[in-house]
Amino acid sequence: MAEHDFIVTTQWSGGRDETGTVKGDVLNESISIPSSLGGVGEGTNPDEMLIAAASSCYIISLAATLERAHFTDISINQSSVGTASLNNGKFKMEKITHHPKITVDADQKEALEKRLDKLLKIADNNCMISNSIRGNVEIEIDAVII
């Protein structure tokens, strides 16, 4: 089994109304509690980063899956929504819904429509973030071909 380490460092001083930082190979961002949850809302936050990780992983996996299926000249624009709940004082991400809009040449549209459901599942099964959260967070994909 091959392994790869992804390293980030975080820093925080003070209480919940402060800000910290998260740094990785490329990532360098302030972090805080979102203003919608009573925090200062500066920089990003773990909830947003979870959705961003899931979304970016899925779109890359989908692009690779479509390429392997010989769909060329595609473009994907995607929004992803994370639905969280507060239960007994604990926050939990319940569901992440990806909404990819796949633009493909007209001569490939019908072929993609026929194979889309299978290709969407393959992409989800090849996404490391989906594989890491599956069983704990529901993953839904609502794709549109343009």
TrEMBL record:
InterPro entries: KH_dom-like_a/b, OsmC-like_firmicutes, OsmC/Ohr_fam, OsmC/Ohrsf, OsmC_Ohr_Peroxiredoxin. Residues 1-21 are annotated as: Disordered. Pfam families: OsmC. NCBIfam families: perox_SACOL1771. This is Peroxiredoxin. The lineage of its organism: Bacteria, Bacillati, Bacillota, Bacilli, Bacillales.
